[in-house]
From TrEMBL:
Pfam families: AstE_AspA_cat. PROSITE patterns: PEPTIDASE_M14. InterPro entries: AstE_AspA_cat, Peptidase_M14. Residues 30-311 form the Peptidase M14 domain. Keywords: Hydrolase, Metal-binding, Zinc. Its cofactor is Zn(2+). Belongs to the peptidase M14 family. This is Peptidase.
Length: 311
């Protein structure tokens, strides 16, 4: 067995301090443009939806506005749906899948649901194609009171007035080959622990809430996405990324306990999508389509079962 080479920043076995974080940050290069890729698309949606700036990230000398897209026909008696993307900025289809949903499908829910979409929670990381923010913090482990991550704190403030009225929350993510080549080794180095290689699943999967599982809801999303792209199989241990597969393409995490974005509301229906963009069997278009299909299936299931409960 080959021993992984030490991560090039820090001393093995010792957590990073401010000096190591500064070195790491200096190596993060802008590779794409949030304004051109994301904000320009959001601007085209202003004629049909309410667009608001719900916060601003300040990482000197950079400053990034954070945008939310909201149903124009918002009615307090309607169920609320929350869609989040780009919590991890490098997960491209999370951002563009959320925007594609708004562009192509959101109008179908007018008068049926209030939609709140935050398509790019982490624009600094989007530009640098990274998982962390500029302070080497993972926003998707930082959704808790007094969050140290600007991205997480801003989104929680946005959602706070609606958090107990949200019926479905779908958080759009990707699992990539770079998780094993860069991000998990960097995490181990940052925390001063040994890096243990894992296995990247080939295909789409979902993360349910282990505290409040909704297997029928998860399966409805899997069934819809399977028409667009392939579903990840379990590995030889019956797991996906180290977690037991509880149904085809579904694993579970304790969402709120882990500080994950999908745990920030009391929604009865919540899930995290995981697209695999590095698969030879998936194109970027399929990845975006899979995210949009997942959102539609999640909303359709939630609305149908809400109607059944009220009937």
């Amino acid at each position: 067995m080959t021993t992984p080479a030490p991560y090039p920043i820090g001393t093995p076995g010792q957590p990073w301090g401010a000096e190591e974080v500064a070195i790491w940050r200096s190596r993060q290069i802008v590779q794409r443009n949030y304004e051109a890729d994301v904000v320009s698309v959001i601007e085209t949606l202003r004629t049909r939806f309410d667009v608001s700036e719900y916060g601003r990230l300040h990482y000197a000398p950079d400053s990034y506005p954070l945008f939310a897209i909201k149903s124009r026909d918002w009615r307090d008696e309607l169920p609320c749906v929350l869609v989040t993307g780009g919590v991890h900025g490098y997960e491209t289809s999370g951002v563009h899948g959320a925007l594609q949903f708004v562009e192509r499908h959101a109008a179908n829910y007018a008068g049926r649901a209030n939609l709140l979409v935050a398509p790019c929670v982490s624009p600094w990381a989007y530009e640098r194609i990274h998982r962390w923010n500029a302070e080497a913090l993972d926003p998707n482990r930082s959704f808790r009171e007094n969050s140290p991550a600007q991205e997480s704190a801003a989104l929680m403030r946005l959602v706070a007035p609606f958090r107990d009225r949200v019926v479905v929350h779908i958080d759009l993510h990707e699992t990539t080959d770079s998780d094993e080549s860069e991000f998990r080794p960097a995490l181990a180095a940052r925390d001063g622990v040994d890096y243990e290689p894992g296995e990247i699943p080939d295909g789409f999967y979902l993360v349910d809430d282990s505290e409040h599982p909704q297997p029928a809801f998860q399966q409805a999303v899997i069934t819809a996405v399977a028409k667009v792209t392939h579903i990840a199989p379990a590995d030889a241990q019956g797991e996906i990324i180290g977690s037991l597969v509880v149904a085809p393409g579904v694993i579970e995490y304790a969402l709120t306990q882990l500080g994950l974005c999908a745990g920030i509301t009391s929604a009865p229906y919540k899930t995290t999508t995981e697209v695999y963009p590095d698969s030879p069997r998936a194109t970027p278009e399929q990845c975006n389509d899979a995210q949009a299909a997942a959102v539609c299936a999640a909303i359709d299931f939630a609305l149908a079962h809400r109607a059944i409960r009220q009937g």
